[in-house]
Design goal:
Number of strands: 27
Shape: globular
Mean pLDDT: 96
Number of helices: 21
Strand order of the largest sheet: 21-22-23-24-27-26-25
Distance between the termini: 38 Å
Largest sheet: 7 strands, mixed, barrel
Structural class: alpha/beta
Radius of gyration: 24 Å
Length: 641
């Protein structure tokens, strides 16, 4: 039997385990990346390992999330990360150089290599043929130290593309279509390979948009072939030597095949408050728009920006709309300026923001109260924009421009003919904002610079044989890491200060939770389906750990979050019968006993002490995960190994 692209890369990087779906495997990691919202914690964890230099082929620390410096906190964290990078052998991408996924695609991505990043949208690298995974900071720290990355061997899905996109229909619409078909949990446990004759009609930036949005499916990762289109992109970046051809075997087998005819698609929009709440743009015709944001790691490439500039040229945005433009990298911004396209954007009335994540992570440019905001981003979770009652919609850059010009949700095909966009044969190369590390001899004398906002991460404790605790919070389906640990300009500066962050934990769901959890001493949280979807931020596990959460019981978990819970030493358990979720009430006293034997058996009994009812909980842990939980999490397990 032939192999898929992902299976070939996995085979070449397999350290331990068998390539059988559902079995744990360990992979050798070639590259890592971090961003500053998660990086500070990852480097604090790396320091505890006592390793002088990173042991990967390449590790890059990016500053792209916490770039608003309204106090000393963000600047101090950036200084800390820069000093760690210089001392321990990482490259450091300075603030303003761009969004980690866009810059990594441009300057460092290599087909056939493995990459993990402390950001859930790291699968963007799949657009260039990398096997790229979002991961928690602890997993990235271990990989930087030369350790393997452990995942459950995924199933293989294939999306077979035919036809060609029509004018004003985009890669973003392809992403929204697959979300409409599969939902935000439809890719859980699977790697999605994009293939078929239609692939050859898509550029690398378009492919990267699609693999970026694959994260919203809950997929382990997504990947495209590495072909002559990939080669041309790398040649334009001055990195033609990095190209290798990658394709699946003709007789490769897939667990599921999904067919999409590109020529049949039309402009789509994800309505509040989930990326899979997808409708046709034509169905929302006439909806008033207050704000439009173009950018993010999903749609900030040079190709996207040139299209936006061409559509805005000679036009002025509607007086009732505020439009922001965030180029994805310094390279993109410089080439826009050199080509004159930046002038067309500015003349339209748009506000050009820094080359950073910005509004996507709630870092500025929040909508007005109850405002309708159309964004080219990847997530529209409730409150993520920084405005609690905003209605955020996800759209393509073309649809975003149409709304900015008219003041209403408008089918972009009404703008006339799509201008022809010609991509340059050579990109502007300037890596001056990527700082190289010190050599090993110099590094020995360097000091790490820490600010007063950097606090130690919370101490975990071993999962004992019994937990008796109050059910302090019960939540529903599709609880995101933004629900658990919100982002935004007011909170992100404290990513290295867990005690301060704790007061915002679950604030979107129940602002009184932190106080109740502290009063309870130790507690259990109960959730519905797809608990922990969204960002890879391990703070969504570390902050509950600080507040005394010992176990989380849910109908099902998102992949990265369940790994982060185990890494933190929090016990994740799943209802054997989902109907038992309804029998538990917030405030009940719960008991888990004979935990160690239950972990070995794969089933633990939960007793609701308040009502006297019992129910079965499943836990399909590997031996390594059992040992980690018994040790008190990944760092304690690594230290004792």
């Amino acid at each position: 039997m032939g192999m898929t692209i992902a299976q070939k890369i996995i085979k070449n990087h397999l350290v331990t385990g068998e390539m059988i779906p559902g079995q744990e495997i360990a992979l050798r990691i070639d590259q890592t990346l971090t961003q500053d919202a998660t990086g500070t914690m990852a480097y604090l964890e790396f320091e505890t390992m006592g390793i002088d230099r990173v042991r990967t082929e390449l590790s890059v620390a990016y500053i792209d999330h916490n770039t608003l410096q309204c106090g000393f906190e963000n600047a101090d964290d950036h200084r800390y990360i820069q000093s760690v990078a210089k001392k321990h052998g990482l490259r450091f991408s300075r603030p303003g150089n761009g969004i980690c996924h866009q810059v990594h695609l441009e300057r460092f991505g290599v087909p056939g290599k493995t990459l993990i990043g402390s950001d859930s949208h790291t699968p963007t690298g799949g657009g260039i043929g990398m096997l790229a995974f979002g991961a928690g900071g602890m997993d990235v720290a271990v990989a930087m130290g030369g350790g393997a990355y452990y995942i459950t061997m995924p199933k293989m899905f294939k999306v077979n593309l035919t036809g060609k996109l029509r004018p004003f229909v985009t890669a973003k619409d392809v992403s929204l279509e697959i979300l409409r078909l599969l939902s935000v949990k439809g890719g859980v446990g699977a790697i999605i390979e994009w293939g078929g004759e239609g692939v050859r009609t898509l550029s690398v930036p378009e492919r990267a948009t699609i693999t970026n949005m694959g994260t919203e499916l809950g997929a382990t990762t997504s990947i495209f072939p590495s072909d002559d289109i990939t080669r041309d992109f790398l040649v334009a970046e001055g990195r033609g030597a990095d190209w290798v051809e990658l394709s699946s075997d003709p007789d490769a087998e897939y667990d599921r095949v999904i067919d999409i005819d590109l020529s049949a698609l039309e402009p789509l929009v994800a309505c509040p408050h989930s990326p899979d709440n997808v409708k046709k743009v034509s169905e929302l015709k006439g909806v008033k728009v207050d704000q439009v944001c173009i950018g993010s790691c999903t749609n900030s490439s040079l190709m996207d920006m040139l299209k936006v500039a061409a559509l805005l040229k000679g036009r002025t945005i509607d007086p009732s709309v505020s439009l922001s433009i965030s180029p994805g990298s310094k390279q993109v911004l410089a080439m826009l300026a050199e080509s004159g396209a930046l002038n067309d954007i500015i003349a339209s009335g748009a506000r050009v923001l820094e080359c950073a994540c910005g509004p996507c992570i709630g870092m500025g440019f929040s909508p007005n109260s109850a405002g309708i905001s159309l964004r080219t981003f990847n997530r529209n979770f409730l409150g993520r924009s920084g405005t609690a009652d905003a209605g955020v919609h996800l759209v393509s850059p073309e649809t975003a421009v149409a709304a900015a010009l008219t003041g209403y949700v408008t089918d972009p095909r009404q703008l006339g003919e799509m201008p022809e966009i010609k991509m340059p044969e050579k990109f502007r190369i300037d890596d001056s904002a990527i700082l190289l590390p010190a050599d090993p001899e110099e590094a020995r004398g360097l000091k790490i610079l820490r600010g007063p906002n950097i606090k130690p991460f919370p101490e975990s404790r071993p999962v004992g044989d019994a937990i008796e605790a109050q059910l302090t919070l019960k939540v529903g389906d599709n609880i995101t890491t933004d629900h658990i640990m919100p982002a935004g300009a007011k909170i992100l500066p404290y990513r290295s200060n867990i005690p301060h962050l704790s007061q915002y934990c679950f604030g979107v769901c129940d602002a009184s939770f932190p106080e109740r959890a502290k009063a309870a001493g130790q507690s259990i949280v109960v959730g519905g389906d797809n608990y922990g979807q969204g960002s890879s931020r391990e703070h969504a596990a570390l902050v509950p750990l600080y507040l005394g959460v010992r176990a989380v019981i849910a109908k099902s978990f998102a992949r990265i979050h369940v790994a982060n819970l185990i890494n933190a030493g929090i016990l994740p358990l799943t209802f054997k019968d989902p109907a038992d979720y309804d029998a538990l009430s917030q405030g009940d006293a719960l008991a888990l006993r004979n935990i160690h034997a239950g972990m070995d058996a794969g089933e633990i009994t939960l007793e609701d002490v308040t009502t006297g009812k019992t129910c079965a909980l499943t836990c399909a842990f590997t031996q390594r995960q059992k040992d980690m939980l018994k040790a008190g999490g990944l760092l304690a397990y690594t230290a004792s190994a």
